[in-house]
Amino acid sequence: ADDVINFLEKNKLENIDVFGYSMGGYVALYIASQHKNKVNKIFTIATKFDWNEESSVKESKMLNPAKIEEKIPAFAKTLEKRHAPQEPSDNWKIVLNKTAEMMIDLGKKPVLSDDVLDKIENEVLISVGDKDTMVTLEETANAAGKLKNGKLFIFSDTEHPIEKIDVKILAREITNFLN
C-alpha cells in the first residue's frame, strides 16, 4: 500500500479507479480506508477477506518455493517470469516468502476488519469465482455487505488463478462498473 501511495503522490494522481486482483483488491480497499482522495471506484476479484491464524498458515504453506519447483516446475517457471524479469532469477522465491510472511501477519491481525470496511464510502464491486478454493463466496458476500456502497458479483465457472478467468467477461464487467 505504501508503494502505491508513493507512486500516486509522485505522479500527482488522485481519484483513480482501481482493479485489484487477489491481494491487489485488499490493497486498494486499505488505501480507500486510509486515503479517501486517492481512489475512486474499486473493482476486486478473488480478494481474501477472512484472514485468521489457521487459514493464513494453511495458505502460506502453499507458497513454498522448493515444493513448487519440485512438484509443479512449469508453474515455478511461470512465477520466475512473472516476478523476476531481471537478475537474480530467484527473485520470485523472495516474493513468495515475503507474501507468506504477510499472510501470516494478516492471520494474526487482519487490516480490513468489518469496522474498517464499514467506513469505506467508495463505490466498490467485490467479485469472486464460484470455483475459487482460496476465497469463499461467504467471505466475499460478507465484505460486499459491510461496504456502504458495495456490490457483489459472482463469476461462474471461475477459479482463483487469474489465468483461469474469462478475460472477455472480466473486461465487460469492469467496463460496465466503471461506466
Biggest sheet strand line-up: 1-2-3-4
Given the C-alpha coordinates, what overall shape results?
A: globular
Approximate strand percentage:
15-25%
Using the CA coordinates, give the radius of gyration: 17 Å
Number of helices: 9
What's the pLDDT, averaged over the residues?
92
N- and C-termini, Cα separation = 26 Å
How many DSSP E strands? 4
Q: Assign a percent range to the helix content.
A: 40-55%
Structural class: alpha/beta
What string gives the helices and strands in order?
A: HEHEHHHHHEHEH
Poorly predicted segments: none
* Oligomer status: single chain
What profile does the largest beta sheet have? 4 strands, parallel
Characterization of the model:
The structure is a single chain. With 179 residues, the protein is α/β, with parallel strands linked by helices. The protein is 53% helix and 15% strand. The chain contains 9 helices and 4 strands; from the N terminus they run αβαβαααααβαβα. The chain has helices at residues 2-10, 23-34, 53-61, 65-71, 73-83, 91-108, 114-119, 137-146, 167-178, and strands at 16-21, 39-45, 123-129, 149-155. The protein has a 4-stranded parallel beta sheet, with helices on both faces. The longest helix is centred in the middle third of the chain and has 18 residues, at 91-108. The model has no long low-confidence stretch (mean pLDDT 92).
